[in-house]
Amino acid sequence: MVTSYSSLHLFLQAAPIPATSDVVTIMATRGSNVRLPCKSTGYPTPTVTWSPAPATSPRFAVSAEGMEISDVQIQDEKYYQCDVSNIFGKTTTNVHLVVTDPLQVQISPQSSIIDDNGSIGFACTVSGYPVPNITWIHVRPDGQNETVTSDVQTAVTPSTRTSTLTLTDARSLGCRNLPLPSVQRVRDKRGQS
């Protein structure tokens, strides 16, 4: 009795799985770790190309799941494109990394009492990303808010992100012998206070 064996190898070849054509937005806080998604599946094993190319830094690592960025920095915020290709096709994933830095506000002085015709200056120093916009607000004795615009001088020093408010006549805001609250509205570019 003669027994014969034969083997058959079956190789399935496939193009990379198509990605969504929309831009995927990923938000990360400065100093955190983040993964930009880009699955690379297919046979033969696809080639993955990121643009812009990851920096030659240990903070960037490319895997089959995407690109890992550790200790995210403000300068990492940009649009990234991941191309996955093999001999059967190509697919692209577009990722927008948005980096934020928590808003911090320091006001000095916190409050002050001024006499009629007196003047006072306040400074508001901010940090955070996106760079915030500052609007000075006066809280009237009746609790209503009003934007401070008359009888005042304001100045902004971009390098230190400081806004100063100089009030030349407290009576113009109805603040006679009352503590003058240094209330301001600080919003980032996305409108978040």
TrEMBL record:
Q: Where is the Ig-like domain?
A: 18-100, 102-176
User: What GO biological process term is on the record, naming one?
Assistant: synapse organization
One GO MF term on file is: axon guidance receptor activity
Recorded hits in SMART domains, A to Z, give: IG (SM00409), IGc2 (SM00408)
Q: Which UniProt keywords apply?
A: Disulfide bond, Signal
Give Gene Ontology CC terms: axon; neuronal cell body; plasma membrane
Read off the Pfam families from this record: I-set (PF07679)
Q: Does the keyword field hold Disulfide bond?
A: yes
Keyword Flavoprotein part of the UniProt annotation: no
PROSITE patterns the UniProt entry points to: IG_LIKE
Its name, as the record gives it, is Ig-like domain-containing protein
Starting at the broadest rank, the lineage of the source organism is: Eukaryota, Metazoa, Spiralia, Lophotrochozoa, Mollusca
